[in-house]
Amino acid sequence: MVDGARLIRSAKSGSDWTFNDLMAYNITVTPQSPEQFFRQNHGTLLEGVDPSLLNSSLDDENISDAVFEYLGHLNLATNATQESFIDAFAQKTLQILGFVERGLILTMCLLDLRSMILLVLQEDKTVFSRSYPEPQVIAEAIAAYQYNNEKRLLRSLPPLDAMTIPCITMVGTRPIFYLVPVTEALSNAVATGQYPEAKTTV
Predict the structure, then answer these.
(1) pLDDT surpasses 80 at 96
(2) Angstrom distance (rounded) from CA 56 to CA 9
(3) Contacts of 49-52 spanning 24+ positions with Cβ under 8 A
(4) Spatial contact of 71 and 79, defined as CB atoms under 8 Å apart
(5) Residue 19: how many CB atoms within 10 A of its CB?
(6) Secondary-structure breakdown of the chain: helix, strand, coil percentages, each rounded to the nearest 5
(7) Which end of the chain, N or C, is less surrounded by CB atoms within 10 Å?
(8) What's the CA gap between 187 and 89, in Å, rounded?
C-alpha cells in the first residue's frame, strides 16, 4: 500500500490532479448507494418535471419546444466527441431540475452572485476521454472552499472552519454525485504542499 505521506506534493492546477494527489493529501472516496447518498425519496427530485421528458423521443410530434430542446442536447451528448455537447447537456439538466434560479449562474459551478459557490460541476469529459474527473472535482471543491472564505472576508464575515461542497462529475451523460468535506486544515495542507494528518473521506 502506498504511504501518502511519502508522496511528492507540488503546486498544480486542479485540472491536473490525479489519484496520486488524493493519496498525497490523505483523501479517500467511499462509494455509497443512491439511498445512502440522497437520504430521501428520489421521486421528489422529479416533481414538477414535464412527464414527457422521461418517455419521449425527438421523433414525437406532441412535445413542447423545451422538451425537444432538452432531448436534442441529450442526443448530442450521448455519443459526444466534443466536450461542449456534454457541457450544454449538464447545464440544461440542472436547469430543468430547478437548480438554477434568479441570482445564480451556472458555468463550471453554481455561483450565487451575492455570496458563494454552491455546487461544483466537472462536466467536460466525453466517454472517449482518458482523464479521471474525480480527483479534479475534489481539487475544485477545495478551491471553492478557499473562494467562499475569501468572499466572506470581503463581506466582513468570519471564515468558516469547514464546508461540505456538493459536486457532480459528468462522464458522457452519466452523472456521479459527491459531497466533499473541506476543512481549514485540508485547505492549508494543499496550499502549502503538506500532508494532512486527518483523513478526508468523500
Answers:
(1) no
(2) 49
(3) 49/96, 49/97
(4) no
(5) 13
(6) 40, 20, 40
(7) N
(8) 31
Residue tagged 508522496 (cell numbers): 7
Question: Is residue 68 exposed (0-12), middle (13-18) or buried (19+ Cβ within 10 Å)?
Answer: middle
Amino acid identity of 73? Answer: H
C-alpha cell at 145: 472552499
Where does residue 156 fall: left (phi above 0), alpha (psi -120 to 50 degrees), or beta otherwise? left
Looking at the chain, how many residues does it have?
202
Mean pLDDT score, 142-166: 92
Contact criterion met (CB below 8 Å) for 21 and 41: no
Report which listed range, 64-73, 148-157, 181-190, is most confident: 181-190
User: Can you give the pLDDT at residue 79?
Assistant: 72
